[in-house]
Amino acid sequence: MIDINTLTATLFNGYYPMPDYHERHLKIMLRIHIQYSEHINRSDKRGLGRLIMQDAQDISIEKLEKNPVFKQAIGRDSRETIERRNHTPLVCAVFGRPFTQLAPDDAYTFITDREARKSLPAIIDNRVQRVVDAASPDDAFKENYQKQRNIGVVFSGGPAPGGHNVIAGIFDAAKKANPENRIYGFLMGPEGIIENDVMEIDADLVNQYRNLGGFTMIKTGRTKVDTAEKMALSRETCQALNLSALVVVGGDDSNTNAAFLAQEMFADSIQVIGVPKTIDGDIQVKDDRGQVLCAMSFGFHTAARAFANSVGNLCTDSSSDVKYWHICKVMGRVASHLALEVALQTHANIVPIGEELADYTDPQRIQAAEALGETDYHAYGMTLRNLSRMICDGIVRRAAVGKNYGVIVIPEGILEFINEIQVFIIKLNTIIADYNKTHDKDFHSAYPTLDDKLDFLRRLARRLEEDGGIPVWNRRDDDLFNDIPDFFQEGLLMERDSHGNFQFSQVETDKVILGLVNDYLNILKEEGLYKVGIHKEVYRKSMTKAGLDPDAFGKVLFRNDGKNDFLLIRKSIISVKTLKNALEDADLIQPTDEIPAAVEKIYQKSVPKFKTQTHFYGYDGRGNDPTRFDCNYTYNLGLTVFSLVANGSTGQMAAIKNLEKDFEEWEPMGIPIAPLMHLEERKGKLALVIEKSVVDIQSNAFQVFKVSREKWLAANPADDDYRRPGPIRFTGKSEENRPITLVLNALK
Ligand code: FBP
């Protein structure tokens, strides 16, 4: 007979000490196992037990690997991947025609920047071009359209779902026009152009990635072609490959780069076409009269849907488990488009939108200053403190109706819209750029640790003060900066990207805000203002069960007794001691009595614990396989690119107009890039860039969000108003066919 104690000790040696109940549980399991084995041995007349053992040994991994079921189950290509590869995106009617041509459309006009005119003379007068059918092309047109071309493609910046379909569209259209056309992919982003690191893209490669996410095929990178030397090397590469055209798939900065490359290679007749990519959704093009030409960059829909699915699931979990606040930081380096779309998709409880915060004014402060005949400049623009208070207000109000849980969505770039932080970012950008310009060594290598950097800033403040003049970093800046937590200081001092952008994804924005929220909630708790409301029926039932008079105790315990469904403990009762005092003062108990257990339990229930879980949604959604909207959008962008190339355009951005409408109304076109440029401060100096589109707080989408947010906060006894967007569905009919933001903004 096996001794169960010895067996447990032998098998689980090393796991001691373990809790008693674990040990008990293990022993029971072992006993069952032994009894079952003995039973099998006893009744195993036909050797079944041995057979099971035998089979287990016989199935070698080699044999398993040959099994077709095994192969299908764990093979590299999931059913979804296979289905996606075989899917043919919808194609705009014009691309069904043998030839397309470009029709200039002067209904769209732009106010051009003087500096852009000076720097980009070859492309500044480009016009909007609509892709139309070339119904009766003459031979010269056909010959030009079909002539053999080499086209180079590069991905630039962060991945965005749909990039592979841009390549597929270019490839299919180019091969249709002339099977001898060749498509080259530059590897690892613009660095591949500079270094002439390139591969030819063939049909097998394209087919492998159709309708799949990522930029895996040729990878991407953030190098900027921003010096005369890099420009010359890029030009050499394009000439060496005998390129007719270079296609830059990228965001605002990369399309800016595309315009400069178009100018540079104009003399070589190498065309450069941009494609608007970024999950951030901040490339939206309108003309000077506000007519929309490009409503959204590709990748936005997929990333927003992926984030919304995860956030929606958290809403479900949170309202089931009712104990956590989920804090979800959602990508979007500057603009809050993704957070707004996630809010519209999920109805999460609290979603501060950066662009609205920048416009914030504090009426109380303004009035108080006006009464003194003064102006309070601090009353304009949101501070981090205001923001944390706004969030706390929502948390406290939900707790009051028994909902001490919920979901907060924080846009990644929110800090850019907070005055005090923006000032730090601008000042530090200037200091770092200045240092890099005047020294031989880069700021971050010269001052590698946080302490080194802080030391440098301290010395700078002192020196600038002694020098007189207007210091960019004064002692007050230094003091304020030293007041913020280390990790946030480190974030603000981090290296800028190659375009001089502040890298918000590296800053723990959520942690900064959460820290302030936590501090303020503790103050509210001490002031007795943050309490969990107790449902009056729950209260009455437990008191009656304990033989206590709910009415007599209710008057003492609650500040809203008899008025609401949810009862709130009085502000003055903030501890067991203050509870006891209140009961004694009301003669409900004597000083020698204990607090009745039922009453103490009610009190404990009313004490909120602010338990949080933090999440970052960014890279995951960026790597998602594209929605059907993005598949169709990007494939047609690729077809548009070829049409622009075959018709001799350069310095144009491929776009699809009417994305907010049904597919039949989509209109492929070319948008001139140069007129979209304006001067902006980058790396401490003014540079021509395409202006980022941030959330327009007058837009329909924002206005809908604004009037709905009270309902979505659901600080009332009714059920939460969460919406379940569900996962991205590639097949079937239930997937929405465009972002909600677009649908709303198109409503008249
Ligand atoms: P792009 O503008 O290049 O498309 O990238 C957008 C983005 O995904 C932002 O949302 C995010 O802040 C940033 O890239 C992250 O950058 P990195 O990939 O370098 O960490």
Describe the fold and architecture.
This protein is an alpha/beta fold and 748 residues long. It folds into four domains: 4-75, no CATH class; 87-131 and 149-299 and 626-690, Rossmann fold (3-Layer(aba) Sandwich), CATH 3.40.50; 314-523 and 612-619 and 698-724 and 740-745, 3-Layer(aba) Sandwich (Rossmann fold); 531-606, no CATH class. Helix content is 47%, strand content 12%. It is built from 32 helices and 18 strands. It has a nine-stranded mixed β-sheet, with helices on both faces. Strand 8 (285-286) and strand 9 (292-294) form a beta hairpin. The radius of gyration is 32 Å and the shape is globular. Mean pLDDT is 91; it is low at 45-54. The structure holds 1,6-di-O-phosphono-beta-D-fructofuranose. 1,6-di-O-phosphono-beta-D-fructofuranose (FBP) is lined by residues 157-158, 160, 222, 251, 278-280, 331-333, 412, 504-505, 622.
Indicate the radius of gyration in whole angstroms: 32 Å
Number of strands: 18
What is the total number of structural domains?
Answer: 4
CATH class of the largest domain equals Alpha Beta
Number of helices: 32
Shape designation: globular
The fraction of residues in strands falls at: 5-15%
Chemical compounds bound to the protein = 1,6-di-O-phosphono-beta-D-fructofuranose
Structural class: alpha/beta
Helix amount, in percent? Answer: 40-55%
Q: End-to-end span in angstroms?
A: 83 Å
Mean pLDDT: 91
